[in-house]
Amino acid sequence: MTKRDFFRIIIKLFGLYSLILTVFTYIPTNISYVIFQFEPVVLLWIFGAVALTVLVYIILIRKTDLIIDFLKLDKGFDEERIEFENFNSQKIIQLALLLIGGLLIINYLPEFLQYTYLAFKKEVSPNGLNQLEEFSFGKITDYFNWVISGINLIVGYILLTNYYQITKWLNRKQKT
Fold this sequence. Notes:
Layout: H1 3-36, H2 40-62, H3 64-71, H4 89-124, H5 131-136, H6 140-161, H7 163-170
Helix pairs in contact: 1-2, 1-4, 1-6, 4-6, 4-7
């Protein structure tokens, strides 16, 4: 694998990771603010930030070679090739997808389990939740965060189970 190929993979994976974070973390968190306190400035801020992130994603995915040339990432190395023995670009992308999926599951599983426990206790317990639990759960935003953590778990599971198909999609040849 050449240095240029390695940096292409890294830049594309960073773009994919930033898109996943934006779609499943930034947007839902900020939409909850709009739902409970509607202010046009906040809505414009969210749309502007999302548009900027999507633009960055498109640039990172479509103009990878331009970024490498502009930052001169492939200059200054002793050798032209990077040897990873049995690693090729597909193996590196698969490894990265496995890591991203695993991190999503590791980050959101405790939150999802906590919200599940509190929702179950609220429904089943004759006394409901105690004061401390009522303070930390029972509002609409908590149900919203519960759903978002569930969606992140699903995305992590999809990345872990379908990493081969996603790798083929990310590593496809672009038509010129």
